Amino acid sequence: MRIISSVCEMAAAALQHKRQGVTTALVPTMGFFHAGHIALMKKAKTISEQVVVSLFVNPTQFGPQEDLSKYPRDLQRDTRMAEEAGVDILFTPSAEELYAKDFSTWVNVEGLSEHLCGQSRPGHFRGVATVVAKLFGIVQPDKAVFGQKDFQQLAIIRRMVRDLNMPVEIVAHETVREPDGLAMSSRNTYLSKEERREAVCLYEALCAARAALTQKDISLIDLKKAVLTPISARTLARVDYVFIGDPSTLQPYDEQGFQRAKEVLVALAVWIGKTRLIDNMHIIKGH
Asked: Rg for the chain (alpha carbons), in Å?
């Protein structure tokens, strides 16, 4: 596996691969790899001749009071795991290379960024879309693989690619979960043993939503109650948001829209102690 930290070197390698006709899949990450990341890398390996994994803790998607300085990092461990997963290039740029002191160009995806995490983390998706656009420009991938755990992020990147006519195919990978259902996340490492036990309430809430949506006449209010019940039973859990809406537009349903809908996105963010976790489930009503 080749490790590249220079933007110029990565761009030169990408250009060479393009000229040689080598297909490339990019997996953008912030590192501290777990089985979810490895699944994305292995998926990328099946759809392209070459896999590039970017490892960059992007400062522009963190708010002033968020966990940028505490975000878990272990480059040596990540390098070993990426190599074992068959990654061809690990791209590890610095913030100084990606963001000049007078950096002033941003990518905003309007509409899709307003609700869910966009409401409680203003500016977050501007940072996400901008850094992904930059990575696409540098790496020049044919395909890019993203996990569905970050459903809103996935939708925003797809819209950005469509609207800006970027020649990149976005490939989604299903959420990778622990045996008890907790979605894998680097932030799970923040949890104490007790918090880890309580964190399963996110998955319990989504399963409750899926069960409730098998009922023909369930109301939006009753669905929200079903989602909140497993969370409220946990003493360390505090709800940031519960979103029930259109999986295509990421707009929340009102009662009338909910009753007409055939598909529902249930997404939530929950604080477990001092750690904020997210999860979601795309549900077909009646199934």
From this structure: 19
